[in-house]
Design goal:
Largest sheet: 4 strands, mixed
Strand order of the largest sheet: 4-3-5-6
Strand content: 5-15%
Number of helices: 28
Distance between the termini: 65 Å
Shape: globular
Radius of gyration: 28 Å
Amino acid sequence: MNHETPSKLTKIFGLDLRSLAVFRIGLALIVMADLFSRARGINAHYTDAGVLSREALTKELLHPWYWSFHLINGSFSWQAFLFLIAFLIALSLLVGYRTRLAIIATWALNISLQNRNPALIFAGDDVLRAMLFWAMFLPLGCSYSFDSALNSSKKLLPKRVISGATFAFIIQLIFIYTWSAAYKTKSSLWWPDGDAVYYSLNFDQYATEFGHFLLGFPVPILRILTFSALIFEWVGPFIILIPFRTSFFRCVAIISFVLLHLGFELSFSIGVLSYLSVVNWLTLIPTELWDRGTQIISTTARKGLTIYYDADCGFCKKVVHFIRTFLILPGTPLLIAQDHESIYADMLEKNSWVVVDWENNRHYKFEAIAYVVSLSPIIYFLAPLLRWQPIMNVGTKFYQTIASNRKFAGNFTRPFKFRSLEIKSSLPFNLITLSLLFLTTIFNLKSFVDQTVVRRPFKDDWINKTHQVFTRRTFQTINIIGYITRLDQSWSIFAPAPPRDDGWHVIVGKLKDGTEVNLLDETRPISWEKPTLKERQNIYQTIQWRVYYINLNRAMGKKLYPHFADYLCREWNKTNSEDKQLESFEIYFMDERTVPPGVTQMVEKKKVWQQSCSGS
């Protein structure tokens, strides 16, 4: 399925191995950033001492077919252990070591983490979950990775690969936008009124300073932005399927969607969603662009570089392969010093590897490292720092220490084995991925139909008839696959309509000594005034807390409030003296439902919960 001269089908549905490497690196960084964000609330969000114990989750919120390793134990130590394991595996994915195993484990741990507390799930989590799933079937470790550096196969890998998995990945990417657009067409705010951007920017739980700046634009301009966003979500993804000048149109699509998501990131506080979406689109960078970039960086100095290593030193062989791969110096000859008499003599005399430049000059020890770094198209700017004499002196001593203790140094590279890395076309593999894509399509259609039926009066049309089909026992059985794999997708951010249930919480605590305190921020007095965006950032320090407080005001909140209230009692009384113990508190929601343009904004004070802390 891979050819030197790609067919039209390969150009459209094939992916470059270098682009897949960029996707792997970006995906790993996103997973690590997500873990860091969630780790800030690890005790509050994932332990039995937090806002949702395992007992409460399994009894009230957990879907019967959802699973989670995080439910094995409710202690902080167990959760911290799983977070650490997930981070280390993401690090393995980042560098491309045992990539297939790393991505499978990352997917499993990500689902486990998301299932542990559904009150924290946001659109970015849905996208991450979907992309991690299809990433398991893609050859992510075939470029810029430990796996590719240690590839022992003499058969050259293709530049581009096409398979059921690459086809599924591209269709999944299209689904995210087209299904989201389909949901939005069910609301008049998107069409024909065109007020969706106005309402989105008015939702202070997500809006940023730049978002508020945009809100100051005239209403007609905001409507143009609404129609433009809706049309672009419908049409934009299909640009990548244009069968002529495919590379050009693919670049147009990449740039357009990257700019779109940068605009989203400037306007809304939405966690990793924008960055993840950019990473997804970079996966489509065409082979022609990579080849042109390779030609640009292929200077005489880089083409003339040759590296010689000691054949008796396994550590040395692995290190030079890593250097060639991660410094982006493809094609650099890595030769055995013993095969060249003069080079071998220098190696013994200098106790060093030998690097020969395009003018046939020889470089040794740490100075050779500085020279090779100067040729790297990605970290060449570090070369002057490495050549700074104090750094050079320390580096040379370090190199000499390693060179004199190669056997010991080899312990650090022993886990990394040379393995054959090949890409083979497999009919069963392709059939499996295409079948899973078909199920994904069914799950997307089902989510759209179910939501439509719930939100509108009865109509005897195709949507209602489709809904009746999906309620049959056969489809209920198929649904189990979606629940277990978490392919049960619904792309409904700001859809069908942007949220209008805006507002903020005020939690008034009463201590045993009669003092009233602000439980949301004990350093500030109780205030009923609307918090500024900066004050909101102090309250919602992570996207998970932001989403949690939003869900407190949704239907889920009825199940969340009792456990949240118990958590507030425990946390306060655990960290304060006897005379400052929390006796009771009241939770208010200042309901600031967004009104149409030109209508006076009203705020309604609602008491949503009252709690006594006696016995907590």
